[in-house]
Amino acid sequence: MARAPLLQLTDISLTFGGDPIFHDLSLVVQKSDRVALVGRNGSGKSTLMKVMAGLVQADQGAVTISPGASVGYMEQDPTMDGFATLGDFATSGLDAGELYKVERAGEGLKFDPDRAVSTASGGERRRAALAKLMAEAPDLMLLDEPTNHLDIEAIGWLERELKSTRTAYVLISHDRAFLRALSRATLWIDRGMTRRQEKGFDDFEAWRDKVWDEEDTARHKLNRLIKAEARWAVEGISARRKRNQGRVRALQDLRAQKAGQIKRQGAAAMALEAGPKSGKKVVEAENISMTYDEKVILSDFSIKIQRGDRVGFVGPNGVGKTTLLKLLMGEVEPTSGKISRGTNLVAAVFDQARDGLDPDMTLWDSLTGDKEMRVSGQADQIMVRGQPRHVVGYLKEYLFDERQARAPVRSLSGGEKARLLLAKLMARESNLLVLDEPTNDLDIETLDLLQELLDDYDGTVLLVSHDRDFLDRVATTTIAMEGDGQATAYAGGWSDYRSQRAETNSENQSSTRESKAKPTPKSKADQAQNGLSFTEKHRLEALPAEMERLEAEIAKLEGLMADPELFTREPVKFNKAMEALSTRQTALAKAEEEWLTLEEKVEG
Questions:
Q1: Is residue 246 located within the same domain as residue 288?
Q2: Same domain, 378 and 329
Q3: Which residues are within 8 A (CB) of 109 and not within 5 positions of it... i.e. 6 or more apart?
Q4: Residue 356 in contact with residue 289, Cβ under 8 Å?
Q5: Fewer CB within 10 Å, N- or C-terminus of the chain?
Q6: Coil, strand, or helix at residue 273?
Q7: Does residue 265 fall inside a structural domain?
Q8: Residue 41 — φ and ψ, nearest 5°?
């Protein structure tokens, strides 16, 4: 006997503002499901989740919940009217014997239950709402971007909790590592249709590409058939032969079939252009410390960042990552130590607080009102990387339609706001990108494109992120801030940092067992005994990971170009791949030469 589903949607249709969001959509969620809900920004993921939660009423169709089952929903912007503190909200509706669950979740998610709702930030509200949902433990949890505003430690706690829970869940997230670790099935919203695969997110991209390839093949066959039938119709008329009305009607049906095909939304036409080349040295910090209100933010930290480096900053919320960025950028001065900056630096900044956007301005005014983008005497033109562009045309490249151009910024989704900020950022020439949590709310395709742009960017990148997968893809050096002023630079991305840290901890434990005496920190003279300066030592440690990354990218490009039909089918893509391959081969040769030089210096 088949078991009843926990939740079932049957023939759901929904229209907003004249545009259909879903049509005849059906799906089921079973008691043991761990479902990743994926799709482009604006495809309707959050709307579908609200339909599942009963917060949005569909125009047609039915939502059926198994008798006695409970459904809990964590929205992106929770309302807490009527509650004085976050703790009051999080514990509401719970029995006295269950209050410890909120306290436990609060520790893992790092929210202060005594914080007044009126002064709480959006991130604090979201953490309280998530703690409430985890404590309630409904039969089905609907989680809309639960990792936003969580630091890596809190994401790790949530990941462990969801792995161990018996509760079914459907989750939306931009965090690839989170989705890979937790999902067993994937629900894909694509142009108003839903497709389901009984495999986790790790298999999604291969599945998506296969579906799209099959679509392209079917479209190509249909186009050829239409051309053949249209040629017959023309020749039949010109030869004054009796026309086969059946074939004429068939041609009309084929054309109607083509017109009914829903075009896939392309990727945003994002582009980065480096400005004037900076000096080789970008920023050098020597033994800097920072204390604020008697709290030690940074203690005796040194690093040299060179042109072309991709530096990731990781650590718990509030540990001082943004403060360190401001120190390196010269926005604040260190309590002690010295910071010097290179020449000819042109910085562009992506702010996680979205301070660059006024919610009451229209998208149009947000671009034309920016003094760096304004074109004198042209109300509908903006300056994009040195060239005047029409506002609407530029917005379309970032997947905004003409109607949205005059809409207020506050009407945008989180992903759309992130795209608008990227549009403003990428209109400028720069040689130093400062990206503070750029991945929040972006869909998978836009994240892929952003990573490719950063790979090809000729400048330097400073990146604060809690997205482990994105750090692995982008960062060549990771600065880990772990509290009490401690900051350490590691070669590579997030996974490299974790493995190196684990090795260091293992070595320290062995050393402690061998000797009870506390080891004496090495002096600068000791560090230099092997013939390398601090910067050279750090560079030697970073080079193997950098060379491995370049080798992997070269192999990927060579695999792409092994397709004998690529040049004929996609000449632009072929030429770009050729350029990228040449650039990476040159970079690999330089890295190998630098590594050999430093190794020889160590050997004396």
A1: no
A2: yes
A3: 127, 130, 131, 134, 150, 154, 157, 158
A4: no
A5: N
A6: coil
A7: no
A8: -55, 130
**323 and 344 fall within a common domain:** yes
Which residues lie across from 139 on neighbouring strands? none
Q: How far apart are the first and last CA of the chain?
A: 76
Q: Are residues 96 and 222 in the same domain?
A: no
Which 8-state DSSP code applies to residue 315? -
Full domain range(s) for residue 27:
7-206
Strands 387-390 and 432-436: unpaired
Query: Do 174 and 239 sit in the same domain of this protein?
Result: no
Per-residue model confidence as pLDDT tens digits over 172-204: 998 999 999 999 999 999 877 889 999 999 999
Q: Is the pTM of this model over 0.90?
A: no
Bridge-based pairing state of the strands 460-464 and 347-350: unpaired
Task: Please give the torsion angle defined by the CA atoms of residues 229, 235, 241 and 244, in that order, rounded to the nearest 10 degrees.
Answer: 10
Residue 598 has, within 13 A of its CA and on its CB side, a CA count of 20
Q: Are residues 168 and 50 in the same domain?
A: yes
**Is residue 256 within a helix (H) or strand (E), and if so which, with residue range?**
helix 245-259
Instruction: Give residue-wise pLDDT tens across range 249-299.
Output: 555 555 555 444 444 455 556 777 667 788 899 999 999 999 988 889 999
Please state the domain count of the chain. 4
Domain assignment of residue 1, yes or no: no
Helix (H, G, I), strand (E, B) or coil at 498: helix
Contacts 24+ apart (CB under 8 A), 204-207: 204/36, 204/38, 204/444, 205/444
CB burial of 429-458 (b: ≥16 within 10 Å; e: otherwise) equals: bbbbbbbbbbbbbbbbbbbebbebebbebe
In a domain, 520, yes or no: no
Return all residues near 5 (Cβ < 8 A) that are at least 6 apart. Answer: 28, 29, 30, 64, 66
- Model pLDDT for residues 377-428, shown as the tens digit of each residue: 777 888 888 788 898 998 888 888 888 889 898 888 777 888 888 888 888 8
Same domain, 326 and 377: yes
- 333: Cβ–Cβ under 8 A, 6 or more apart, which residues? 327
